[in-house]
What does this fold into?
Amino acid sequence: MKSPAKRLRLKDNHPTAIKLIKLFDLADELGIRLSYQSQGGIRVEDKDRDSSLPPLYLEDIEDDHWFEEFPPSTEYKLVYENPDFLKQQALENLAYSAKIEEKKRIEKEAAEAKIKADREKRIQEQEAQERQQLAELKMKYESIM
It folds into this structure.
């Protein structure tokens, strides 16, 4: 026997479905769109609002609460990110990135200098060893003669 469906679809002519369609139509007419964010806020998009402005968020007045229903049953605030704060954050991020790049450059230069110093040390050791061998060969040659 086939198990019953977990959910059933409400018919379009059901009174609740009709009210919901009216709500959607009103939102379309007003140019308003609500997007629920994973952080608990609701992003509010208004087609008549300048798109270059920062986005709007509908949040609960209490910072430790978030909306779980529409329309909200608690007091709310309409917020957006402060452009001055965003500029400051961008400048701080640039400064931090520059600091990291400078640190990497210094570390790279230090590593290259160490490689060069190690190479020069090996060359000097090899030259000293060759001089030692030459001196030994010279002493052998002189003792033979």
